[in-house]
Specification:
By secondary structure, this protein is an alpha/beta fold. 24% of the residues lie in helices and 20% in strands. It folds into two domains: 67 residues, no CATH class; 239 residues, TIM Barrel (Alpha-Beta Barrel), CATH 3.20.20.
Length: 334
């Protein structure tokens, strides 16, 4: 992930050695031979490379074609040999993980009630880095309801509650909280991500100051703003017009909604490392579950309000388009 260079400096680490402080975009794509020298000759594999500056996020190479790679596989041999040199490290990966919506939390909670031993075994196999555990260290969960929820609600569905006096984690989402606590017992270095990654991304650098890739990252993301903060007063998307109200008051309140989410989970002993501002931000026409169209301009505006509210936190905004820029001291990738 691209990070502001000040984030790395704040931890006394170089950006190149701290995977939680930058994303070095390194994409190497192999395409099987588009041409062959002759029948029975070696395959020629073409490759393209994309890289980015770790400090600024500026593109260094963008789909730059590389010298062809000659495979030792022969045409007509029935297979292609791919040799991976594990000693030639190209980049550091933050980790691997999964989503934890309300429905999954309910399945796990029900299992815990019926068979505690099996429940603990499942968590060990998924999140432990010991023995045969998969060692997953990133978890993304929804803020309020999503497409895998038992009900449709947000953390505050009291109409026009602009002070968020009635803010609170809903009952279905409390299942997520309880399961997350158990997972943290298995892997206390979990990275929590409020859903949805790879889209508009707010990074709150509150968690680990270690290079250990087994740190677990919690991340949170809304599928929709509270219904009363939207044009049609509906959490279900229905139309791109049913987006966040355009007033500064609405943006200020929604930014506070994120800040309150951060504090609410922290009160439960869960440190959210990342927020994404909107799940599937350009899909605003669904009629089956919560959703909201939220374009780059809207995300930028919300990010500015969030910066004012949570100025003490190093924040990085990511956008799901192509290009790089720096503005207001915040790294932007869009």
């Amino acid at each position: 992930m691209l990070k502001d260079s000040t984030a790395a400096a704040g931890h006394g680490q170089s950006s190149a050695s701290a995977p939680s402080h930058f994303l070095l975009m390194f994409v190497l794509t192999f395409l099987l031979a588009l041409s062959y020298l002759a029948a029975g000759s070696a395959l020629e594999v073409k490759s393209w490379l994309t890289t980015a500056d770790a400090n600024t996020g500026a593109a260094i190479l963008l789909l730059a074609e590389q010298a062809p790679i000659n495979s030792n596989s022969k045409l007509g041999s029935g297979g292609v040999n791919i040799n991976v040199n594990i000693n030639d490290i190209k980049q550091t990966i933050l980790g691997y993980g999964a989503g934890l919506p309300q429905s999954s939390a309910k399945v796990l909670s029900d299992l815990k009630g019926r068979n505690l031993e099996l429940y603990n075994s499942v968590l060990q196999k998924l999140f432990s880095s010991n023995g045969d555990g998969a060692g997953m260290n990133i978890l993304r969960f929804p803020m309020g309801s999503c497409d895998f929820s038992m009900s449709i609600t947000s953390y505050d569905e009291v109409k026009n509650d602009y002070n968020l006096d009635n803010f609170g984690i809903d009952e279905d989402s409390k299942l997520i909280v309880n399961v997350l606590k158990d997972i943290m017992q298995v892997n206390p270095k979990l990275i929590l991500i409020g859903k949805h990654s790879l889209y508009y991304f707010l990074s709150f650098d509150l968690l680990s100051k270690t290079n250990n890739l087994r740190v677990i990252f919690p991340t949170a993301t809304p599928w929709s703003a509270p219904s009363w903060l939207k044009e049609w007063n509906e959490m279900i998307a229905y139309s791109e017009k049913n987006t966040l109200l355009s007033s500064d008051e609405a943006y200020q309140t929604y930014a506070q909604y994120f800040a309150k989410t951060l504090r609410a989970y922290k009160d439960q002993g869960l440190n959210i490392q990342y927020f994404t501002l909107q799940n599937e931000p350009l899909f605003g026409n669904g009629d089956q579950y919560p959703g909201m169209y939220f374009d780059a301009a809207q995300a930028t505006k919300l990010g500015r309000f969030a910066v004012k509210l949570i100025a003490f936190i190093v924040i990085t905004l990511f956008f799901h388009l192509v290009g790089f820029v720096l503005f207001n001291g915040i790294s932007l990738f869009w």
